[in-house]
Amino acid sequence: MIFNHIKMSVKCVDEKHPSIVKEERPFNALEELKKKIMV
């Protein structure tokens, strides 16, 4: 389920933001998701 959330997040970012932002985004999204899951 975590992977599905990440893929959906990346897709939303890819559609709304340029490819340049998409490259830096996934890492931040992964860290944010990990923090939310841990809490």
TrEMBL record:
It comes from the Eukaryota. This is Uncharacterized protein. It comes from Plasmodium falciparum (isolate 7G8).
